[in-house]
Write a structure and sequence with these properties.
mainly alpha; 0% strand; single chain; Four Helix Bundle (Hemerythrin (Met), subunit A)
Length: 144
């Protein structure tokens, strides 16, 4: 029976040749977990703030007793809180994805070209999936 020979692409060879060490993987896992913990605390604070605002409106205070400017400001604050919570929730998903990538050995490699992402970039943006070159290309392609 003949042996099946598979040819690796350049991207696969690059990813295998430049795997993160266990020490690097541990470092980035801890970095991501710290950011995740901080983010969860912030989400809890935002959730509590939005509950307090809702309780103010549903409690003894009548909306008719507030001035229209106050109502508008409060509505704007609730909307801003919701947008922050939404953004933070999205970032939480990115952090979780990065943890899964560490587990499966794909963390630190560009999802576009397969080349290693600079460690300095990953320290600043641990959810990065693109190397600098591919990120710049992506930015140029985005409509303004």
């Amino acid at each position: 029976m003949a042996k099946k020979i598979t040819k690796k692409t350049d991207n696969q060879a690059t990813m295998e040749a430049v795997r993160f060490s266990k020490r690097d993987s541990k470092y980035f896992r801890e970095l991501i977990l710290k950011r995740r913990t901080k983010l969860l605390r912030e989400l809890g604070r935002l959730t509590e703030a939005s509950k307090n605002t809702v309780q103010e409106y549903s409690g003894n205070h009548s909306t008719y007793s507030l001035h229209m400017a106050d109502q508008g400001t409060d509505a704007q604050e609730r909307e801003k809180t919701f947008l922050f919570a939404s953004r933070e929730g999205k970032y939480l998903k990115y952090l979780d994805r990065a943890l899964r990538m560490i587990d499966d050995g794909t963390y630190g490699h560009c999802s576009e070209c397969g080349k290693p992402i600079q460690k300095k970039r990953l320290e600043l943006v641990p959810t990065s999936r693109l190397c600098i070159d591919c990120k710049l290309k992506e930015e140029k392609l985005r409509p303004k």
